């Protein structure tokens, strides 16, 4: 095969940067028995949400690891509950060595847990205007005027997000800052995805599948028990808990 003919062949792949929204399981103590009990209780609150859910294990808080620490045992426990471990966040050499032996990615870059996934055959994308320019002490704003349908995902990187229409069940909206939805919010809304705990969510009709601020979240099973389900409300983070208040 000549060099000229090889250059004419279509590329088989592309390398692209993207943003995913992933769950991080942060472990403060290595006790598999306790973890088994507590994890089972937590997942039972919203079993469908955790089916085959990709997660990152944050083990950086574990101190004085015992010689019998086994990352494989921890991953096996997660798999038994339907959680798919795709990476480990840890500085300890003992954990990093075991992760390499198991072929598990080591994720220690800031913000590496947050990436955006595009489905294999997504619906037609919504035309998204460029963020508006603002002063240095304000975030830019991304404005969406069309309904966001099931399977679509909108991410306001480095910005607040304003949606002037409905967010359908199965849709996902993310922002590094605040999220405002002037319509029914039936999908997933994740504000402060890079860790801004001051971010808030505002919606005209709260009927969400999931609400999250800086990684702290509530799913529909919890939200439906709130007296403001279906009402206009704001959601903020206080003492690592989501607080829902009427508007």
TrEMBL record:
It comes from the Bacteria. The keyword Cell cycle applies. Residues 144-244 form the Septum formation inhibitor MinC C-terminal domain. InterPro entries: CAP/MinC_C (IPR016098), MinC (IPR013033), MinC_C_sf (IPR036145), MinC_N (IPR007874), Septum_form_inhib_MinC_C (IPR005526). Residues 13-85 form the Septum formation inhibitor MinC N-terminal domain. One of its GO terms (biological process) is division septum assembly. The keyword rRNA-binding does not apply. Residues 113-139 are annotated as: Disordered. Keywords: Cell cycle, Cell division, Septation. PANTHER family: SEPTUM SITE-DETERMINING PROTEIN MINC. Cell division inhibitor that blocks the formation of polar Z ring septums. Rapidly oscillates between the poles of the cell to destabilize FtsZ filaments that have formed before they mature into polar Z rings. Prevents FtsZ polymerization. Belongs to the MinC family. Interacts with MinD and FtsZ. This is Probable septum site-determining protein MinC. It comes from Thiopseudomonas alkaliphila. The lineage of its organism: Bacteria, Pseudomonadati, Pseudomonadota, Gammaproteobacteria, Pseudomonadales. The gene is minC.
């Amino acid at each position: 095969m000549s060099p000229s003919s090889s250059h004419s062949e279509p590329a088989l792949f592309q390398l692209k940067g993207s943003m995913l929204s992933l769950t991080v399981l942060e472990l403060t103590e290595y006790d598999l028995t306790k973890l088994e009990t507590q994890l089972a209780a937590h997942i039972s609150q919203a079993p469908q949400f955790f089916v085959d859910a990709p997660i990152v294990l944050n083990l950086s808080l574990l101190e004085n690891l015992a010689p019998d620490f086994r990352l494989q045992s921890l991953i096996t426990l997660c798999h038994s509950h339907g959680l798919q471990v795709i990476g480990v966040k840890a500085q300890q050499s003992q954990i990093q060595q075991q992760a390499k032996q198991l072929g598990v990615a080591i994720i220690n870059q800031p913000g590496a847990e947050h990436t955006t996934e595009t489905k294999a055959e997504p619906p037609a994308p919504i035309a998204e205007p460029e963020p508006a320019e603002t002063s240095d002490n304000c975030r830019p704003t991304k404005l969406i005027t069309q309904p966001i349908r099931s399977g679509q995902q909108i991410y306001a990187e480095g910005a607040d997000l304003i949606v002037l229409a409905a967010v359908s069940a199965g849709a996902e909206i993310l922002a590094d800052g605040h999220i405002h939805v002037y319509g029914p919010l039936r999908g997933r809304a994740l504000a402060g995805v890079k860790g801004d705990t001051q971010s808030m969510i505002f919606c005209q009709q709260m009927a969400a599948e999931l609400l999250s601020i800086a990684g702290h979240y509530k799913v529909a099973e919890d939200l439906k028990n709130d007296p403001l389900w279906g009402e206009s409300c704001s959601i903020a983070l206080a003492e690592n808990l989501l607080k829902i208040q009427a508007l």
